[in-house]
Amino acid sequence: MDVDYRLAFEMAPVGMILSRNRSMVDCNRHVCEMFGFSRELLLGQSFQMLYPSADEYERLGARMAPILNAKGFYSDSRIMKRANGELFWCHVSGRALNRQAPHESGIWSFEDLSSQRAVKAELTGREREVAARLLEGLTSKEIGKALAISHRTVEIYRARLMRKYGASTAADLVHKLISG
Length: 180
Fold this sequence. Notes:
single chain, alpha+beta, Beta-Lactamase, Arc Repressor Mutant, subunit A, 2 domains, five-stranded antiparallel sheet, 8 helices
């Protein structure tokens, strides 16, 4: 049986992007539908246009590189931005094609989580990063280590998130983040 890899790429049930130096070289139709951009507007562009802020793009890129270098793959859930400015939760997984130069080239998948998890409160970039790690089940100390900030700073962000979501406990906050 002959396999049409281009058709498989186009028809994948998740968004897929081929990258080179953090720019989009190719993408499937699902990415265009999810983010609200035409393929022509995405190709050749930096992934930065899919992030809520340039700061988040830079921080996440710096954090991903050593993980891609060590493991060859990376995965997380994060808030991304559509063409119309709407923020949404997205599960992102990627593989570096050259672990020694992790951003040189890779393949990435994107799964829209907005039907399971809505973005309700207006959050800062750092609050979004802390919220994503809370949803992974990390403790304040583990989040601090992952984000290269103190666990006390993480607790301040967690308290802000609790206030914004009207949560009385950490478990209540996680529930509200998940259920939207």
